[in-house]
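Handout, page 2. Input:
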Amino acid sequence: AIQSLNMTESIPSSSCRRPSQFPRITIVSRLGTRRIKSVQVLADKIQEMYNLTYKVPVAYFEDVSFRHQVAAMASTDILITPHGAQETGIVFMPQCGGVLELLPDEYFFPQFYGTLAASIGLDHAYLYLAKNDTHRIVNMVQRDVGFLY
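Output:
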């Protein structure tokens, strides 16, 4: 897809091939449901915590061209994003990359995009932002993984 869009020249090579460089972290949020509240605070905190020499970009894909989405993902080593369709773009990330998926309360689907990440060689982790209710979480896990069998 990147070659057919004539984008090979415009995407910098992955930092996994340049170990002396910081990984390129991108936050892709959403405008509607499952958006990251205070997303700019999160981006600033990541930049500060890891002493990054660049500003962590925050992207929204709702009103952006496919070409722009491909370029953003291909230029990302570590993606932080809430669960959603924007994660299908991880197929354009460098193979040494990783995804941190944020799962909101009562929305426990870590295997949904986790399996896609694994199939293309990406590390995948999730943060389940549930209220502290273990019984409800256990029931949710039992209910939601049924589609895998």
